[in-house]
Design brief:
3 copies of one chain form a homotrimer. Chain A is of the alpha+beta class. In chain A, 37% of the residues lie in helices and 45% in strands. Chain A has 5 helices and 6 strands. Chain A has a 6-stranded mixed β-sheet with strand order 2-1-6-5-4-3. The longest helix of chain A has 27 residues. Chains B and C meet through helix 1, helix 4, strand 3 and strand 5 of B and helix 1, strand 3, strand 4 and strand 5 of C.
């Protein structure tokens, strides 16, 4: 059985990862491009199914400050994360869970996108950061379901 | 580095705040007006964008026992909270996250409301309670996005 | 006040229950019938309002490999769990919270089902497992709201 310090550290790690992923939704809907980017490592990757791959803080921030996200915000949007299941292995982790984008329009609110997400994370000197997030819409494609495969 | 007791207490605090916010959704959809009100401090505030400000247990309970919420419950509704990012500073805390109201109607379920929430909380002799919750629909207005501003 | 070991164990239990429920959604949308079933005890029950009661791993797995769930997956679906409020009493626990099934179709995504859930869980030699999960759509029926009753 791991000792008390290791158990405490593991709980802190799991708590920090849950908080980071919750913060993504809050920062995205605040339009905080730099805040969103800072959740990733300097050369981190955010691969959004249908939109390609953003690499590094400048490209990830541009997803938030760019026209697609800004149009969503002008309409009104909610990036609601589901709960994640977390597997930690030393200083790296895999978190898997859903995300919803709810969009406001003339007819009220609607679910604009429902996605699978796989978050690879690493713990460094400043805490947990995202190495790579893959997101794909759960529209029947196998690629989205594959993001929910267990860690290898 | 904080000592082990402080680390344990911090994790307990974060866990308790997550549980309190999850309980809100369960109590609201159960129609438990007194249970909902008891999540707040005696003179706590629940400011609901578009519905004004309820202050104190009696007014907060009246939001649940009142006609708007009762009509939602008769139709069928789900007050689904998103995950929250939590910042604790001593015995006060700020939690930020989304909430969805899903409503049942003739055409099935629909997202009736998607909101930003800012929860100010305080830890007292009976645990964490809400000082003030602000909720505003994410329909494009800046007021809702501002609820996701970081703690000052 | 409970001693440090008890406090640590309680936090680990609560974390494990949250993770198990998040894992349900991930495994369901991955179509992992055995993985879903293994969340339950060998003779566990999954009672789905409108679909009857599955008992034991084979029947629970059949819910995932069966035609209703497979049709959902072919269209594209997201089983998004809400946060849960957890009450632990020794080696048994009750978790209560929402779940959403979002379905993809010709018109995009829609909320197909919004439900109340009551999860009875037990901690055994292999960790927490589900004794019984009750799920009922929040379509105005009292039976669904009753799943949010507090533990007796």
């Amino acid at each position: 059985m791991p000792d008390r310090d290791d158990r405490l550290t593991l709980l802190e790690d799991r708590d920090a990862i849950r908080d980071l992923i919750a913060r993504y939704g809050v920062l995205a809907d605040r339009g905080d491009a730099d805040g969103v980017a800072a959740l990733w490592e300097t050369d981190g990757i955010y691969a959004v199914g249908g939109f390609g791959e953003a690499r590094g803080h400048a490209e990830i921030a541009a997803l938030i400050s760019g026209p697609v996200h800004q149009a969503l915000m002008a309409d009104g949007c909610a990036h609601v994360m589901g709960p994640v299941t977390i597997d930690i292995n030393g200083d790296v982790a895999l978190a898997r869970g859903h995300s919803l984008v709810v969009r406001h329009g003339a007819g009220g609110f609607e679910v604009f996108r429902a996605s699978a997400n796989s978050w690879q994370l690493r713990k460094g000197s400043e805490g947990w950061r995202v190495i790579r997030r893959d997101n794909a819409p759960l529209d029947g494609q196998q690629a989205a379901r594959a993001l929910f495969d267990p860690p290898v």
